[in-house]
Amino acid sequence: MQRFGFSLVLFGLALILGVVGILLTDGMAPGRVAPGFAAVxxxxxxxxxxxxxxxxxRGRTDIHGLG
Length: 67
Hints:
Blueprint lengths: L1 H25 L8 H24 L9
Helix pairs in contact: 1-2
């Protein structure tokens, strides 16, 4: 379960980094990337990160009794 969560976090970060890289290079030749596609891709990356972190936290035990 933790490997799957780690994979989701890693893929989400790579997706967001890719979108940022494409948008930075898009400044030199505007119009290559649609803003809607960039927004959806970044949102999907964020969702993957949150889901991955949820999978990572699922296997942890509460050692301090706080939650």
